[in-house]
TrEMBL record:
GO terms for biological process: lipid homeostasis; membrane raft assembly. Residues 53-477 form the Major facilitator superfamily (MFS) profile domain. InterPro entries: MFS, MFS_dom, MFS_trans_sf. PROSITE patterns: MFS. Residues 1-14 have a biased composition (Polar residues). CDD domains: MFS_Tpo1_MDR_like. Keywords: Membrane, Transmembrane, Transmembrane helix, Transport. GO terms for cellular component: membrane raft; plasma membrane. This is Major facilitator superfamily (MFS) profile domain-containing protein. Its main location: membrane. Signal peptide: none annotated. It is a multi-pass membrane protein.
């Protein structure tokens, strides 16, 4: 008994030690391994706030195009009011388009460096004051030129800076769809402009500028009190802003709150040239320019053809712009979603080998649709085919064009995270410059070549776009890696 007891007592500490060791080992096994902290979201803004930001910059993006197009139908009225020649009054359109094309290059590079909201608040002051003065001062042709230049200068920033804002808050996987919503503002301007010009009937031309100043003022106040700074270099994903509720503290400039975000290049001529000569940006800009020049040729001739060849009244001609408007909207929304779908499919198939250029395959389809529309429009007008056919081919030309533009704009925000607004501004410059050239020469080309062959030539020019798309798909990754080896 005593031996047994002694044996047990002798083995007790050993057993106890073994049990303790086993428990320690079990605890180690059972203990949860450290879980790496989840990566922060691309944007800390709520879904509701992101939706509102996109709505607001879309609304702001409407200002420039509607200001340019609401003015065109009342040119004969303004010619009488300002007592000038047709050439002189048409020149006020040309200077607006020229300034609207060049100015975004200035605005965008500063928006990529100093802040999105600061640029909105600065540029829109020029726009609002110009419209107030146009609505109030006595009719003077010199003043009209100066104020149209100032109006275009103020409105021109929003297209490129707005694209940068979308890129700030929407990750690349959803950016095509978001860009398609943002593009609705610039696309609806040319459509609603001629319709809204009806408020100038009975000689009330000043109400056009009064209306634009009111709309601009509303947008300005919403930006002041509701739009947070989004530039990622300054605020990152927005978490450090610590926002609560729909309003933000009015602030003209935003101090830097975060580190470790890519520092954009400081505005300079050298950096401008660096962005322009970057092959993906240059080629996408050329492609967009060719396509927009062709579509603008349709837009410039559309209303005159409806009047002279098909006998449409002023009201009917204004309402006819609903057709190209629907084409731009539907092409944008469908193209944006398809672009995101292609990205998701490529990422799911081989995540390590995904490149932004894989969005581009749908551009060939968009170009083919637009080329068909350009050809069909030219020959339908040339052969005096029923007006329904003219509308169908006008729709196809706009549908394919905006399909291409959405993919291009989204791609340009992906190829350089440090300066997306600058890349988009360069493409916008190419588009608007091409539109200005097209509007000047299209009548002469039609006169010399005839409608059918003129638009056949424009269609063949756009075949270059297919070659550009293929070149970007196959060479884009190499060009990007050489520009940024990281």
């Amino acid at each position: 008994m005593s031996d047994t007891t002694s044996s047990k007592s002798d083995s007790g500490p050993i057993t106890e030690n073994i049990d303790i060791q086993e428990k320690k080992l079990n605890n180690i096994d059972e203990e949860k391994q450290p879980v790496p902290a989840p990566s922060p979201p691309y944007s800390a803004f709520t879904t509701r706030r992101k939706s509102f930001i996109i709505f607001l910059v879309t609304f702001a993006g409407f200002l420039g195009p509607v200001s340019g197009n609401i003015y065109i139908p009342i040119l004969p009225q303004l010619q009488d009011v300002f007592d000038c020649s047709e050439t002189t009054i048409n020149a006020t359109v040309s200077v607006f388009m020229a300034v609207f094309a060049v100015s975004p290059l200035l605005w965008a590079v500063w928006a990529d460096f100093g802040g999105r909201k600061t640029l909105y608040l600065t540029s829109l002051v020029f726009y609002i004051l110009s419209n107030i003065l146009l609505a109030a001062i006595p009719a003077n042709i010199a003043a009209l030129f100066v104020l149209r230049i100032s109006q275009a200068f103020g409105a021109s920033s929003v297209m490129s800076v707005g694209a940068g804002t979308v890129a700030d808050i929407i990750p690349a996987k959803d950016r095509g769809k978001a860009m398609s919503y943002f593009m609705l503002g610039p696309q609806l301007g040319p459509v609603l402009g001629p319709i809204l010009s009806l408020i100038a009937t009975n000689g009330n031309w000043r109400w056009i500028f009064g209306f634009l100043s009111i709309i601009g003022g509303i947008i300005y106040l919403l930006i002041v009190f509701c739009l947070p700074e989004t530039l990622r270099y300054l605020v990152g994903n927005g978490e450090e802003l610590k926002l609560s509720g729909p309003f933000v503290k009015p602030k003209y400039t935003q101090p830097k709150l975060v580190e470790n975000f890519p520092k954009p290049p400081k505005p300079s001529l050298k950096n401008y040239w660096s962005a322009i000569k970057f092959m993906p940006v240059l080629l996408c800009s050329l492609n967009s320019g060719f396509l927009f020049a062709s579509f603008y040729g349709i837009s410039v001739t559309f209303t005159r053809i409806l009047k002279d060849d098909y006998g449409f009244s002023q009201l009917a001609r204004s309402l006819s712009y609903i057709c190209p408007g629907l084409s731009l909207i539907s092409g944008s929304l469908i193209g944006g979603r398809l672009s995101d779908y292609l990205r998701r499919r490529a990422k799911n198939k081989n995540p390590t080998k995904y490149t932004p250029e894989q969005r581009f395959s749908i551009q060939i389809v968009g170009l083919a649709i637009s080329i068909a529309g350009i050809l069909g429009y030219g020959w339908c007008v040339d052969k005096h085919i029923h007006v329904v056919a003219v509308f169908v081919f006008t729709f196809l030309a706009g549908f394919g064009m905006t399909w291409v533009f959405i993919t291009t704009t989204t791609y340009l925000t992906e190829v350089s995270s440090a300066q997306p607004a600058t890349n988009v501004a360069i493409a916008n410059f190419a588009r608007n410059a091409s539109a200005a050239i097209s509007s000047v020469i299209i009548d002469r080309l039609v006169e010399q070549m005839g409608f059918g062959w003129c638009f056949t030539g424009l269609a063949f020019v756009n075949l270059i776009g297919i070659f550009i798309v293929l070149l970007v798909i196959y060479r884009g990754p190499t060009w990007r890696s050489k520009r940024d080896p990281k």
